[in-house]
Amino acid sequence: MPALARPLCPILAGIAVAAPLGDQALLFLLALALDANLLLIVVQRIAARLTRRRSAPEPGTLYILRRTVPHLRARRPFGVVEAQVQWRIAAEKRREGRGLG
């Protein structure tokens, strides 16, 4: 149970015991408590995800990403890198056709 809901449990239990509530009102209170708990859990998970995202990556992780992710690999635009790859492939085919490779 989330930490924010812990102080509310005795209060809600006291209200449910002391107040003259019918069956439908108790079901409504239980549904309301369930919704509040689910909302708190979702908010905590989103907050945890945002704090993980804001933390700086380790230097080794960034180095690995630069080696594996194409747009981080070079300082040149990705289109230039792709064009160079196509030129190299075309040059290899020409060399193979001439019998130089």
Describe the fold and architecture.
The mean pLDDT is 76. Helix content is 77%, strand content 0%. The radius of gyration is 31 Å and the shape is rod-shaped. With 101 residues, it is mainly α. It is built from 5 helices and no strands.
Main beta sheet: none
Distance between the termini: 69 Å
Please state the oligomeric state of the protein chains shown.
Answer: single chain
Question: Strand fraction band?
Answer: under 5%
Q: Which value, in Å, is the CA radius of gyration?
A: 31 Å
Q: What's the arrangement of secondary structure elements?
A:
Elements: H1 8-18, H2 23-54, H3 59-68, H4 70-73, H5 78-98
Main attributes of the structure:
mainly alpha; 5 helices; 101 residues; rod-shaped; single chain
Q: Would you kindly provide a brief summary of this structure?
A:
The protein is an all-alpha fold. It has five helices and no strands.
